[in-house]
Amino acid sequence: MSDLQAAFDRAFSHVLGHQAVSVGSIGIRAGLFAGIDDRGSVSASELAEDLGFDEHLVRVWCRAAFAFEFLDADSRGRYLLAPGTATV
């Protein structure tokens, strides 16, 4: 691996880490994790309605949280906390 590729990979890893922290922080501060934990599994639209948030924004957050493995999704596309997320 070239020095340039190694530097790019390191920088990209840092950016992803920052984004994961941001998604986690939003989930905590906005009560999104707690809202999912309360229901067990929930669609993005149900979560948005429960919390009084914009459905589109909650859907985007859920997809990001799923991508960073904070959330799991069932076969119906409903979100639930990934194992260990509630503890962390």
Summed up:
It contains 4 helices and 2 strands. It has 88 residues and is mainly alpha-helical. It starts with a helix and ends in a 7-residue tail after the last strand.
Structure description:
- The chain has 88 residues and is mainly alpha-helical.
- Helix content is 64%, strand content 7%.
- It has four helices and two strands.
- Helix 3 packs across helix 4.
- The termini are far apart.
Pick out its properties:
single chain, 88 residues, mainly alpha, two-stranded antiparallel sheet, 2 strands
Distance between the termini: 35 Å
Shape: elongated
Helix coverage percent: 55-70%
- Secondary-structure element sequence? HHHHEE
Structural class: mainly alpha
Strand order of the largest sheet: 1-2
Number of strands: 2
Tally of helical runs: 4
User: Which parts are unreliable, with pLDDT below 50 for 5 consecutive residues or more?
Assistant: none
| Overall pLDDT metric | 94
Largest sheet: 2 strands, antiparallel
Please state the CA-atom Rg, rounded to the nearest Å: 15 Å
Beta-strand content bin? 5-15%
